[in-house]
Amino acid sequence: MATPTLKDLAAATGVSISTVSRALANHPAISPATTQKVKAAAEQLGYRPNAQARALRGSRSDAIGVVIPNLANPYFALIAAAIEAEAERVGIAAIMTTCSESPKHLAKALDALTWRQVDGIITVPVEGAEAALKDAAKSRPLLLIDRELPPFPAVASDPRPGMFAALTQLRQKGHRVVGYIPGPQQTSTGRQRLKVFRGASSEFSTHYAQGGFRRKDGYVGALELFEKGVTAIVAGDSMMTAGALAACYNAGKAISEDIALVGYDDLNLFRLQPVPISVVDQDMAALGRLAVQHLTKAITHNTTPTGVKIPTSYIPRVSTARQFS
Predict the structure, then answer these.
(1) Residues 201 and 166: beta-carbon distance below 8 Å
(2) Which terminal Cβ of the chain has fewer Cβ within 10 Å, N or C?
């Protein structure tokens, strides 16, 4: 019969692996009832702690865990690459995993990284996984990236500078009817950018599409806005931008000539179009680099990481160059 593991105890007691580990160590954050339940299961299953693992528990693994929603979205892929590059620069490993925008999958990913004894965790949060995030943060430094979810510290961008600059240019180019395709409203970024757009577009006649997580949402949203007679579209994230771009081509809308388009995130996809796309840029490399720096500082000093907010910027290109009046 195989030797029982912490994972077996977690399954038997219905709590996370990290909770099992802390209960066996009599951690004060774990309730007496949970501790008693875990120890009873350990005795029943014949669990014996590994002496070597106990000895290593107080040492550093020189590895951090990273959880992102997916790698299909080029924005998150570039964030992951920036984190990995900075981790390599400072001499630590970055263990990557994804959660598919699912609170349940994020909880499992956090549990798996805790089981692997990483020194700290960087994650894009998913609303609904607050309990799992809180649990993970009890045992090691945890830092959010891209999205904010209080009370956890986060490295994120401020959409205001870039968004205001984009709308200022559209106004100067003579646009009066502008459409917006928001990112998912289940995320802090989607809500914040929509709020900023509303505040910055008071001088325009504005129309709003549904938006969402998928490129298809941006595609459908752009088609809806064409019917409203907008002369410019602002997209709330990179997936909405990609969808809007495809909609322009399929609807026969000449970008810059028939419709101005402002995207989000400075991806190669947008720079290398026949008509290069103006974008609100978050500086993905800086987000990844700062996240690793703030996390490793917290690991070194055994403290809670500090968050930081970096400003966005606006990069005007040909897609918004035409004067409309």
Answers:
(1) no
(2) N
Residue 239 near residue 270 (C-beta atoms within 8 A): no
Question: Would the pLDDT of 294 be above 90?
Answer: yes
Helices (H) and strands (E) in the chain, counts: 13, 12
CA 13, CA 218: separation in Å to the nearest integer? 44
Q: Is the dihedral of CA 21, 24, 26, 32 positive or negative?
A: positive
Give whole-number Cα distances, 34 to 7, 16, 200, 311, in Å: 16, 11, 51, 44
The residue whose two tokens read 């528990």 is 57
**Strand pairing report for 313-315 and 278-281:** antiparallel
Q: Classify residue 62 as left (phi > 0), alpha (psi -120 to 50) or beta.
A: left
Q: What is the DSSP string of 130-179?
A: HHHHHHHHTTS-EEEESS--TTS-EEEEE-HHHHHHHHHHHHHTT--EEE
Q: d(Cα 241, Cα 234) in Å, to the nearest integer?
A: 8
Alpha-carbon distances, residue 137 vs 92, 119, 123, 130 (angstroms): 20, 11, 11, 10
pTM for the full predicted model: 0.82
* pLDDT tens digit sequence for 198-246: 999 999 999 999 999 999 999 999 999 999 999 999 999 999 999 999 9
3-state secondary structure of 30: coil
Q: How many residues does the chain have?
A: 325
Pairing of β 278-281 and β 63-68:
unpaired
Which helix (H) or strand (E) element contains residue 123? strand 120-123
Per the CB < 8 A criterion, the answer to whether 238 and 211 are in contact is no
